[in-house]
Amino acid sequence: MARSAADIAPVHNAILRQDDDRSGQTFQDVTIRQLMRQCPDLPAAVSDAAFTVRVERVMSASLLEMLTTQSVPDSYQGDWPERLSRRRRALTPYLNRPLICVFVRLPGAHYTLEIDASQPLIVHWEWDIS
Known about the structure:
The protein has helices spanning 5-8, 27-38, 44-48, 61-67, 80-91, and strands at residues 13-16, 53-58, 98-106, 109-116, 121-129. The chain is α+β, with helices and mostly antiparallel strands. It has a domain at 51-130.
């Protein structure tokens, strides 16, 4: 059974949108969009896509543990232990700090970005096959 973002982590503020919904954007959405466009490794199609979900959450020890010990999804085709290790290295410095997690869905792939709004900075992003 597929799990939603709400099932994965405690959610302080989640905004759910349709993939083509660009209405009702807040200043924070605009700032996130600017960060996405400035990230040199992030594909342009991701930077221009509408957010599917934006979740504001605190990176607690239990959330970090859950995010870095997940089972390999059926769709994953890479080195799963290395991905979890990169994720842990990227997110550990933000333990007990608020992050904004943005999900972007494109045809054939979905992207997850973790953003420190206090910097502002994209601290980690990854993708997987949809």
